[in-house]
């Protein structure tokens, strides 16, 4: 008699297992475990919407409550993926609506979402609670209105940095008077003014509202009135702070903030005038997260604010903070875990800001809990990188953008190989790494060898030859996402390490030396990889050895996709059919 | 490393845009490498190094021409750009101190918020709760014991309204609303 765990017992055990990685392992044990697991999985995460078909997911997980999807490759954020590439949400919404009516939460990143999608969501999921759209596009405020009007139990509506066709602020008035369930509302990326009285009433009748992120059109007066109605907020994104300072306005603002005793996270602060910052002083001691990256405020005013933020864990700021300001952060913000410093002048016609590698060194020395860094800086040194690695071996995410392409160590004129070697070797828990500056193949030998836990690696303007890619693909045991632009390598390493590509989620290469011939070969050799050539000109009109503009390779069980635009060429697995931009037609 | 062709002398490098082949615009795809600009990938590789090599320039071309570099999201770029444009138009705010005789503390205003003298004077009147009377080119302000004055770049105290507005906002360092007898010298008539 075989031992078999009754499925009810197994179900109960599985109810304690949350992580999808663990659940994936559980599903591989045997058929009955697979069945029990799939019927009880509540949260599904699909990192590449083309890796699996929507119908397959909907069929496998009928009880899913929460779906998270990612569409376009990360470099789409920097305009490297032409419009119309893909990443459409519709097939997923359709499939879920048909098979998983209990779906309550949808989170999409870098996808194309239409008003039709939003209307379908509103109509299909009776208990819909959470909609989070990050860097999405394709919809208008009409679609948002549909969600607001129809989803009676809506708790979370967040539009993060989306491109929305803004038809006006009416959408807000579509929340019915009976809707009282809101916990989080983020409309910071919309342009149009909403009717402040509608917003006031909505906030007043939402006792569970914890997070509110306004758009720049909301005035200071509006902010004060809202804060008065929602002193329980833990997260606030302000509107515009541009109004001329009047003493009564200032004291009202100050008072409103001081009544928000639970505020932990503050963002927005568009156009903030330095004279207004003191109004925030009362909440500073409680803040754990502060996003000043849209506040064009000078260093002394920033320091005056930051020295009061002793509990700060996350700081996003512009390079206006200067080295001196970061020195202050290092001494006052001892709890800091995440630092992002953005360039105030991205086009860099005159880079006059006194922010150098020293700023990051200060923070690395002073903030022992620092584990995540994004730092834009004109140039860097190996010495600084060595210090950072030595002081902060606990770094999990290190993204350095040396803005000057090919910039060497400006003190020694050497490549930054040694510095990144120290980072890869010293920071043993590093999960995400972005490199920049002048780097030779050596740097990638070190990274391949030591960066055992790195899952995502971004490279630009680096390396000398194919060796660079060879080092990375033969090392980096945990590599899942690799994105490369403007590096001088091509076919050999790619073909040699084709098998590695199936262990990764995706590989992006643009402006490199990969030939069309190699793409064809790769595609035919690896049936479970989609090899997409993204090129303005049909690859067949050129010799096979000529380089293609971009390639995007990802593992998939869904086969080549059917929704490719003209400029995406997928190579059919059947060599007779050859190349087309319509996979099977 | 050395078993590979050392190409540093020939200075074959990936060129950055800023050369002839670059076309800008969202639709077109900018490529950093010319089709002609290939180099040997390994000593075993039989591809020829094509003869058109391009020496790199000593100073890199303007970064603005490289698509997607530095890697800042368009959302962020747009928001900062708007700010830059606004501040270019507004001159980043021309803040000057304003004092009034008899008032315990000073105020500050942004001259760039106003389009002309009448707006400025109205704002001052509201701020300090007084009225300036009427301005006459020859006689100054009549009808009030208050006279609006300003200190110019040379350190002289001048009557507000005498020079064209554009000149005024460039030369004005601070404002003072004079009262009573002090104001007489500047052409105040009660």
Automatic annotation (TrEMBL), chain A:
Pathway participation: Protein modification; protein ubiquitination
Keyword Isomerase found: no
Compartments where found: Nucleus
One of the GO BP terms on file: auxin-activated signaling pathway
Main location: nucleus
Domain F-box: 1-48
GO cellular component: nucleus; SCF ubiquitin ligase complex
Cited CDD domains: F-box_AtTIR1-like
Molecular function GO terms recorded: auxin binding
Keyword terms: Auxin signaling pathway, Developmental protein, Nucleus, Ubl conjugation pathway
Name recorded for this polypeptide: F-box domain
Native species: Arabidopsis suecica (Swedish thale-cress)
UniProtKB/TrEMBL annotation, chain B:
Keyword check for Repressor: yes
Span of domain PB1: 93-180
Keyword line: Auxin signaling pathway, Nucleus, Repressor, Transcription, Transcription regulation
Domain of life of the source: Eukaryota
GO cellular component: nucleus
Biased composition (Basic and acidic residues): 44-57
Compartment list: Nucleus
Protein's GO biological process: auxin-activated signaling pathway; regulation of DNA-templated transcription
Membrane spanning stretches: none
Primary subcellular site in the record, as a coarse category: nucleus
PROSITE patterns the UniProt entry points to: PB1
Region (Disordered): 40-66
Keyword Transcription recorded: yes
Homology family: Belongs to the Aux/IAA family.
Function comment: Aux/IAA proteins are short-lived transcriptional factors that function as repressors of early auxin response genes at low auxin concentrations.
PANTHER family reported for this sequence: AUXIN-RESPONSIVE PROTEIN IAA17, AUXIN-RESPONSIVE PROTEIN IAA3
Name of the protein this chain belongs to: Auxin-responsive protein
Organism (species): Arabidopsis suecica (Swedish thale-cress)
């Amino acid at each position: 008699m075989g031992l078999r765990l009754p499925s009810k017992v197994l179900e109960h055990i599985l109810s304690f297992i949350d992580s999808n990685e663990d659940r994936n392992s559980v599903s591989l044990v045997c058929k009955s475990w697979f069945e029990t697991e799939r019927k009880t999985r509540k949260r599904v995460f699909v990192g590449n919407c083309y890796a699996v078909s929507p119908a397959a997911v909907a069929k496998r997980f009928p009880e899913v409550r929460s779906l998270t999807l990612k569409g376009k490759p990360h470099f789409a954020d920097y305009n490297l993926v032409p419009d119309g590439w893909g990443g459409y949400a519709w097939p997923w919404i359709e499939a879920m609506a048909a098979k998983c009516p209990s779906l309550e939460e949808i989170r999409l990143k870098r996808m194309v979402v239409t008003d039709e999608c939003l209307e379908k969501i509103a109509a299909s999921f009776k208990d819909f609670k959470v909609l989070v759209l990050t860097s999405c596009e394709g919809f208008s405020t009409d679609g948002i209105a549909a969600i607001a009007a129809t989803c009676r139990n809506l708790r979370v509506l967040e539009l993060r940095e989306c491109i929305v066709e803004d038809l006006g602020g009416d959408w807000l008035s579509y929340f019915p008077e009976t809707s009282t369930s809101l916990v989080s509302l983020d409309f910071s990326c919309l342009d149009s003014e909403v009717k402040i009285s509608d917003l006031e009433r909505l906030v007043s009748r939402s006792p569970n509202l914890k997070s509110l992120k306004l758009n720049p059109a909301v005035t200071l007066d509006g902010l004060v009135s809202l804060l008065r109605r929602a002193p329980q907020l833990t997260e606030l994104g302000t509107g515009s702070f541009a109004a001329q300072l009047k003493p009564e306005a200032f004291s009202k603002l100050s008072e409103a903030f001081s009544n928000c005793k639970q505020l932990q996270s503050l963002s927005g602060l568009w156009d903030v005038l330095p004279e207004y910052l003191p109004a925030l002083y009362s909440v500073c001691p409680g803040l754990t997260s502060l996003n000043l990256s849209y506040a064009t405020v000078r260093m002394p005013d920033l320091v005056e604010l930051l020295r009061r933020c002793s509990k700060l864990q996350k700081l996003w700021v512009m390079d206006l903070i200067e080295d001196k300001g970061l020195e202050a952060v290092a001494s006052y913000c001892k709890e800091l875990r995440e630092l992002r410093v953005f360039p105030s002048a991205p086009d860099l016609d005159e880079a006059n800001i006194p922010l150098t590698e020293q700023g990051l060194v200060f923070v690395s020395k002073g903030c022992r809990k620092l584990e995540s860094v994004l730092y834009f800086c004109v140039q860097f040194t190996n010495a600084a990188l060595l210090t950072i690695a030595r002081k902060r071996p606990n770094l999990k995410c290190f993204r350095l953008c040396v803005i000057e392409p090919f910039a060497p160590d400006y003190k020694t004129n050497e490549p930054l190989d040694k510095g990144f070697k120290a980072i890869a070797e010293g920071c043993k828990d590093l999960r995400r790494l972005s490199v920049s500056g002048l780097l030779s193949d050596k740097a990638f030998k070190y990274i391949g060898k030591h960066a055992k836990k790195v899952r995502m690696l971004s490279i630009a303007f680096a390396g000398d030859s194919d060796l660079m890619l060879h080092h990375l693909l033969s090392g980096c045991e945990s590599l899942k996402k690799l994105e490369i632009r403007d590096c001088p390598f091509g076919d050999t390493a790619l073909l040699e390490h084709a098998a590695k590509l199936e262990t990764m989620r995706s590989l992006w290469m643009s402006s490199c030396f990969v030939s069309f011939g190699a793409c064809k070969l790769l595609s035919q050799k690896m049936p479970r990889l989609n090899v997409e050539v993204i090129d303005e000109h049909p690859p067949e009109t050129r010799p096979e050895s000529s380089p293609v503009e971009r390639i995007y390779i990802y593992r998939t069980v869904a086969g080549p996709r059917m929704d490719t635009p003209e400029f995406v060429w997928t190579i059919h697995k059947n060599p007779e059919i050859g190349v087309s931009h319509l996979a099977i037609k | 490393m050395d078993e590979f062709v050392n190409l540093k002398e020939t200075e074959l490098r990936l060129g950055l845009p800023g050369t002839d082949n670059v076309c800008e615009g969202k639709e077109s795809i900018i490529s950093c490498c010319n089709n002609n600009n290939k180099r040997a990938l390994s000593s075993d590789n039989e591809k020829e190094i094509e003869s058109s090599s391009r020496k790199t320039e000593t100073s890199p071309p303007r970064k603005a021409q490289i698509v997607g570099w530095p890697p800042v999201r368009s959302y962020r770029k747009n928001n900062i750009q708007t700010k830059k444009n606004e501040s270019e138009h507004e001159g980043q705010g021309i803040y000057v101190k304003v004092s009034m005789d008899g008032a315990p503390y000073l105020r500050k205003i942004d001259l760039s918020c106003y389009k002309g003298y009448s707006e400025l004077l109205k704002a001052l009147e509201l701020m300090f709760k007084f009225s300036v009377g009427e301005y006459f080119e020859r006689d100054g302000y009549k009808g009030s014991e208050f006279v609006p004055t300003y200190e110019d770049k040379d350190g002289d105290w001048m009557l507000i309204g005498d020079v064209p507005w554009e000149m005024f906002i460039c030369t004005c360092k601070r404002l003072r609303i004079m009262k009573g007898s002090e104001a007489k010298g500047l052409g105040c008539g009660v």
